[in-house]
Design a protein that fits this description.
The chain contains 14 helices and 14 strands. By secondary structure, it is an alpha/beta fold. Helix 8 runs parallel beside helix 10.
């Protein structure tokens, strides 16, 4: 890259550093084994070599870098990245025993010389920020670096630091959304919703701080606090004569904790709450990879304890009725996109 930059005739010609991260590599290794994962990396490398005129390199792990010179501008770099993305995504069959086809995908970030940096280190930082932005958007897409990513990264760092302080200081709060029996009008349960009011920024939406908590690992202490606080609330309400159940959301990171059932059991015991009064809500995306053995073990143990399990937002992404057969869930919460048209739209009513 340094040589190509030195040889660039002037600012009119751009050199692109294009970074590729193979999506869901951890899941592929977990489901099929590392031999199959290595096979996928070799196939991805050969596919990238087929279109990389100036060189393709494995940087580390599942990250590859392409260097392209002679580009006229942003559009040329994006076309080169999209062509590589399409090439990687062609169906492949991995392993000798499997007949299942796989469509690999990648998250791609682009940095340009001289626009975003004038040496490898500067361009690599920019390309990595662009890759991270593509991953946060769901993967299988391409992002060109822009200065706003630096501001966004600093914001995430600030929120992560302040969120850690808020957890330690006990500044998180729970709000409760009632669940109403339409036949009787009676409140039969509530869903606990985590809320955070920042001392300087005001109310921080959960859509902002929950993903940051998941990426940083703070979701684990947050989740433990949520379970205990929810059980304390049920105890207080029972003392006041209200006999209702409590639903809380559980993340994939929490389900991967070996001690999640113990955390739940301790919270129930400390507050003298019956397990049936607690319901854990799981999003469909948790089950896209059935190889998550640790999550399945946790779910089985929680079900054996008598804790209720529900799939939230059912129908939005990875829907499969097979989940209802394979997993110990008692309830599905159908996504509102399927129910909000009932009474007005025949298709919604039929569904």
């Amino acid at each position: 890259l340094g040589r190509l930059i030195a040889e660039a005739p002037g600012s009119a010609e751009r050199v692109a550093l294009i970074a590729f991260d193979i999506d869901r590599m951890k899941d592929i290794n977990g489901m099929h084994g590392y031999a199959v994962g290595d096979q996928l990396l070799r196939i991805a490398a050969r596919r990238l070599e087929g279109i990389a005129r100036d060189g393709v390199f494995r940087h580390d792990g599942d990250r590859f870098l392409i260097v392209r010179r002679g580009l006229g501008g942003v559009a040329d770099a994006e076309l080169a990245a999209v062509a590589a993305l399409d090439r990687i995504a062609r169906p492949i069959r991995l392993g000798k025993a499997t007949k299942q086809e796989m469509r690999p995908s990648a998250s791609v970030g682009i940095a340009l010389f001289p626009d975003h940096g004038r040496d490898f280190e500067a361009l690599m930082r920019c390309a990595e920020m662009a890759v991270d932005d593509a991953k946060r958007a769901g993967g299988r897409r391409c992002r060109l670096f822009d200065r706003g990513m630096i501001v966004a990264m600093q914001f995430r760092k600030d929120i992560e630091r302040d969120l850690a302080d808020a957890i330690e200081a006990g500044d998180l709060k729970l709000h409760y959304q009632p669940q109403i029996d339409l036949a009787t009008g009676r409140t039969v349960g509530v869903e606990a919703l985590m809320r955070w009011t920042h001392p300087a920024r005001g109310v921080i939406p959960p859509t902002t701080f929950i993903p940051i908590a998941e990426a940083s690992g703070l979701i684990k202490p947050m989740g433990t606090w949520l379970i205990h606080e929810a059980c304390r609330t049920v105890r207080r309400w029972q003392a006041m004569g209200f006999d209702i159940s409590m639903a809380i959301n559980i993340s994939a990171a929490q389900l991967r904790q070996q001690n999640l059932p113990e955390i739940v059991a301790k919270a129930l015991a400390e507050n003298a709450i019956a397990a049936e009064r607690l319901e854990l809500e799981l999003t469909e995306s948790l089950f896209v990879d059935p190889s998550e053995l640790m999550m399945r073990r946790s779910l089985d143990r929680l079900a054996e304890m008598g804790v209720g399990l529900a799939i939230d937002d059912f129908g939005t992404g990875y829907s499969s009725l097979a989940y209802l057969k394979r997993l110990p869930v008692q309830k599905i919460k159908i996504d509102k996109s399927f129910t909000q048209g009932i009474g007005r739209e025949e298709v919604d009513e039929a569904l």
